[in-house]
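so my prof wants the structure for this chain in the tokens format not the other one, which i didnt know existed until like an hour ago. anyway here's the sequence
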Amino acid sequence: MITSQDTDEIRGWLTGRLPDGLYASPVEVTVDREEICVVGTVPEPAGLAADATGAERDAALDGRIAEFRERTRKERMAVARAAERRYRRKVSWGAECGGRREVFTNVSAPVMTRLRQPQRQVLDTLIAAGVARSRSEALGWCVRLVESHADDWLRELRDSLEHVQHVRAQGPDRPADGAPADAAAQDGPARDAEDGK
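here's what i got, hopefully its the right format
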């Protein structure tokens, strides 16, 4: 599991590594086992008239995000290569401008699962209704639905899991203060495994 300390460490490293001025405000960093997603704000187009129509404003924001993506590609890819070596995860990028948010690339990680007939019938109903084209797309739709309606519950669950990890780290295998160096050395690989290093 990715702890908030892991995320903070990655966010701190990226804050130090990103070129000054790349984004207009501090970046939002989301981390899981496969991917680090970095999204920051870019300034709105200065030449946009105050009385611009909705369509004109939307097109201007799309254009600004596209301009940012092309202009910063080389810098972002250099940071991504360094982060991928350091954290062994792919790096995805995005930008937000005037309330419009676009993530340029995302890792699409396959998830293997076995479902019983009632769960398969749910997916097949979504396919029959035209909500999804395949069972895997229907499953992704279900996950997004839960995500959008259960943010508080999922956040509380993640916090609880992080607390369990912290308590587990305080267990009987932890070397006592003043323990001999060889005892601490024996415990070292276990800590490395937990850290994913």
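also thought this was worth mentioning. The chain has two domains: 4-103, 111-172.
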